Amino acid sequence: MYQLFVAGGVVMWPLLAFSVVGIALIIERVRFWYRINTRQNRIVREVLNLYRLDNVVGALDKLQKNADLPMTRIFLAALQLEEPTPEEFRLALESEAQAEIPVLKRFQNMFDTIIGLAPLLGLLGTVLGLIASFASLNLGDVGGTKTAGVTAGISEALVSTASGLIVAIFILLFANTFRGLYQRQIAAIQEYGGQLELLYRRRYERGDRTYASTR
C-alpha cells in the first residue's frame, strides 16, 4: 500500500486528505441518520397519539425530552405558541421545517466537492505521470537505460487515476444514500406535520384553547 501511495505521485496527498475528511463526515452522518431512523418516527407517532387524546402536556413533555431530533423541534416551534390561529400554527411548522433543512443536508456540499475534485486530481496525476514519462524518454534510447523512468511515469499515471476514481466512487455511494435519507425525511416532515396541523385545526374549531401556555 505504501509503495502504491508513493508511486501515485504528489496528487496522492490531497487524495489522502479527501479520504480522511470524507470518512470523518460519513461517520458523523451515519450517527445522525441512525439516531433519526431508530427514534424519531416512534416518538412522533406517540406525540400525535397524545395530542389526539387531548394530552397536550404529555405531548409537549415528550417533545422536550427528545429535542435533539429535527421533527420534534418542528413540532415544538408550533405547539409552544400561545393561542395561535391555524394559519399561524401552519406558518410556525413551515418556518421551522425550513430552518431544519441545513441540518438535514449538512456536509452535502463537501461531499459534492470531494466527488468532483477527486477524479480531477486523478486526471492531473495522469498528466503529470505522462509528462514525466515523455521527459525521461529519448528517441534514440528506446529499450535503453532510461526506460525505468518511463515505467515509473506510467505507474504514477495509472495509480493516481485509479485512486481518484476510488475516492470519488466511495464518497458518492454514501452521499447518494444520505441524499435519499434526506428526501425521505422531508416527506415524513410533510406527512406528520400535516397530521399535527389537522389535529390542531380540529381543536381550534371546537373552541378548545388548552395550549402550551397552560402546561
From TrEMBL:
Subcellular location: Cell membrane; Membrane
Broad class of where this protein is predominantly found: membrane
One record GO biological process: protein import
Cellular-component GO terms for this entry: plasma membrane
Transmembrane segments: 6-27, 114-137, 157-175
Presence of keyword Glycoprotein: no
Keyword Membrane: yes
Domain MotA/TolQ/ExbB proton channel stretches: 67-190
InterPro entries: ExbB/TolQ_transport, MotA_ExbB_proton_chnl
Membrane association type: Multi-pass membrane protein
Keywords: Cell membrane, Membrane, Protein transport, Transmembrane, Transmembrane helix, Transport
Similarity section: Belongs to the exbB/tolQ family.
Protein name per the record: Outer membrane transport energization protein ExbB
Lineage: Bacteria, Bacillati, Cyanobacteriota, Cyanophyceae, Nostocales
